[in-house]
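Issue 218. Parser rejects a valid record. Input:
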Amino acid sequence: MVELQERTVETVQATAVDAARRATAALLCLGVSVIHVIDQGGIPGSKEPSYVGAGYYVLEIVGVLAALLLIQSSSVLGWLLSLGVAAGPIVGYILSRGPGLPDYSDDKGNWNEPLGVVSLIVEGFLLLLTLVPILTARRRTRASA
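Output the parser choked on:
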């Protein structure tokens, strides 16, 4: 009986940790989306060249979708989308401020722009948070194979 109670407590704790992790990741995904809506000047916003604007729209939509999936369950798809929401803008930040992007030099060398730095912090936390469930799911897949 004691062993069953211990397993039940462990299950409840694991469920609570999972729910907190998912809620935090969902909020961070929404934060990334909001930051990029602000950066593009609202909705519908304008970011030129058009491929950069399209990238913003895709990021914002995927950020909301990932948040909804994570609130609903601990699905691998939700975590993978969250990984993209975190990593995509980080790569974009480095490319746009470093070597630059085709027809886009607005942010080249602008490493300290406040909204960009806030975005990097939010994306960095989201990236770290997504690694645990993704790596855990990967280990489970390998173990069952």
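Fixed in the parser; the record now loads. The two ends are 33 Å apart (CA to CA).
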